[in-house]
Amino acid sequence: MSAALYAPPRPTSYAAVISLIRLALQGDGDLLSLLPAAAFRQKIGWLGWSRRSILIVNEPAQVRRVLADPEGIFPKSDLMVEALEPLIGDSIFVSSGATWARQRAMIDPSLTMMRVSRAFPDMVAGVEQAEATLGAGAGTPFSLDLAMSHLTADIICRTVFSTSLETQAAHDVFDAFSEFERSVAQVEISRLIFDPAWKSAPQKQSVLDACGLIRGHLGALLDSHLEAGAKFDDITAAVVAARGTDGVAFTREELIDQLGVLFLAGHETSASVLTWVFFILATQPAMVARLRAEIDAVVGPGEIGFEHIRSLVFIRNIFRETLRLYPPITFLPRVALEATTIGTHKVKRGAMIMVAPWVLHRHQAFWTNPHVFDPDRFTPEREAEMTPGTYIPFGLGPRVCAGAAFATTEAVLLIARLFRRFDFHVLEPGRVRPAARLTTRPTQQVMCRVTPRA
Questions:
Q1: Rounded to a whole number, what is the largest CA-CA distance in the chain?
Q2: Which of 3, 272, 304, 316 has the CA that lies 20 to 30 A from 255?
Q3: DSSP β-bridge partners for residue 424
Q4: Dihedral of alpha carbons 99, 105, 109, 111, sign
Q5: For domain 3-452, which architecture applies?
Q6: How far is C-alpha 364 from the geometric centre of its chain's CA atoms?
Q7: Bridge partners of 435?
């Protein structure tokens, strides 16, 4: 298959009943396997059969209604909230109503410190460390997933906590989050199919241990900011100093909750999509040649500066297209607090309303060659092909991701710097397959090696 028609790996979709049986037999919690072929054709429809009912919504106006939720009846799914509570508590990512509004007002000022011009030196420092590590181990196989997780965790650590992330801590967080995703109760098929809405289920001890390990590392990073006389000018310091309208600050546990959201959202989602970017480019040498030519034309032989990022259009479109095909947050589940109607479908209280970027981004009604990797679909000349509201890798509405510009700048810099210097070679690319639990990851770690650019 030519580069222009390259379709990267995806699960094969079947009829709803077959998908359900296959997922039950696999027993691995991969929610992509639950998606029937019809989901990629219908605008709104019921997803197979379950006790609580799952309605998948692909119609752009209804997607906006559900995610913006002006009626206040579509909070985040109870399954997602319950799954994430041991990791990030009742933080801004899962809270709703007045609690969310209070948290957002307290955190918003600190998010200005994530503006890309301020964070760019941290990105450069992180990628320089990655270049040294990759160069020292050239030719030796390594996990692409782990490398991207370490790199993005290091950058977000520098941005949020003003320190780099020690290597062992980065490995601990990667392993713990992998265990969390693999075992958390949200992805148990029996819960999705047979349990009624709002039924609580205990988390496995391995999940609680993984959450405890991650929170322990975050707490250690936080404590340096809580010491008497500590002086920092970073996101953590701003969140520590934040006060609600009642003058009350976050407690230490609440600080770990909120900073945990910023840390995990700022590194785990970026690591997910960058793993797919580097895998795809390692198998597509014509695209690598094209992006290198763009770097030569825009930057020349000098350093890649902040002023160059906006002009690296093809590299940015590679990132955007990878976000389309492999959105880090695969599903945005909501739950109906009351009976309502979505389109022509009557929805009962407790039904799960599923907005799935994975499906919306590959929907046959909205995309030409929806499964083909085509960065040029994001060029101005082809903008007319896109249906507004069908590309939502960062969400939609008041809860849209505040780090979209940060993630895009980071990705363009990392892709440009690392492919400018190295050739990436994936070992056994035919075995790479995506799976979705909380984020979109390969089913197994992608092993690769680098060599100096030929």
A1: 62
A2: 272
A3: 450
A4: positive
A5: Orthogonal Bundle (1.10)
A6: 23
A7: 441
pLDDT band (50, 70, 90) for residue 334: very high
pLDDT at 215 over 80: yes
Residue 362 CA, distance from chain mean position:
17
How far are the Cα atoms of 108, 260, 265, 275 from residue 402, in angstroms, in the given order? 9, 15, 10, 22
Contacts of 32 (CB under 8 A, 6+ apart): 10, 11, 330, 358, 434, 435, 436, 440
pLDDT score, position 27: 52
> In this prediction, what percent of the chain has a pLDDT beyond 90?
67
347 contacts 297 by C-beta, under 8 angstroms: no
Residue whose token pair is 């590959």: 362
Question: Of 3-7, 297-301, 359-363, which range is least confident?
Answer: 3-7
- The tokens for 266 are 């700022």
- Could you tell me which of 60, 86, 22, 1 has the C-alpha nearest to residue 435? 22
What value does the CA radius of gyration of the chain take, rounded to a whole number of Å?
22
380 Cβ neighbours under 8 A, 6+ residues apart: none
Contact 75, 340 (CB under 8 A): no
Domain regions of the chain by residue span:
3-452
Q: Which two tokens stand for residue 350?
A: 């407790």
Residue 1 has pLDDT above 50, yes or no: no
Q: How far is CA 169 from CA 143, 172, 204, 224, 293, in A?
A: 16, 5, 23, 16, 37
pLDDT tens column, 342-354: 999 999 999 999 9
Output the pLDDT for position 187: 53
Q: What is the chain's mean pLDDT, rounded?
A: 89
